[in-house]
Amino acid sequence: MTKFYATKRLLLLAFLALLAFGANAQSTKVTGVVRSASDSRPIAGVTILIDGTQRGTTTDSKGQFLLEVPRGKHLLQVSFLGYKPRTIDIRG
After folding, report:
1. Are 34 and 56 in contact (CB under 8 A)?
2. Cα atoms in the 13 Å half-sphere on the side-chain side of 46
3. Which of 11, 74, 76 is nearest to 43 (CA)?
4. Cα distances (Å, whole numbers) of residue 34 to 17, 61, 71, 90
5. Cα 15 vs. chain centroid, distance in angstroms?
6. Pairing of strands 64-70, 27-35
7. Predicted confidence band of residue 8 (pLDDT cuts 50, 70, 90)
8. Please, are residues 11 and 3 in contact by the beta-carbon 8 Å criterion?
9. How far is 62 from 70, CA to CA, in rounded Å?
10. Which of 16, 67, 75, 85 has a CA-to-CA distance to 53 between 20 and 30 Å?
């Protein structure tokens, strides 16, 4: 396996998710930063979707995102072109 593919494979989206419950108990605001596991740099343009829906967002130039997740949903699909998609459970 080449170093290129090993790096891609080892790229674990270092995902710092901070949960903050909004005033509305019907949803949860999820914020975080998506970083490369190989060099800890933020990744811009990462797609983050609420599992089972078409609702989502993308990371900004600093790798940051904000997403309101409806009550009862707890899985986020994180994907970026050229990297293995990940499913993140926001329940911790």
Report:
1. no
2. 30
3. 11
4. 9, 11, 23, 14
5. 6
6. antiparallel
7. very low
8. no
9. 25
10. 16
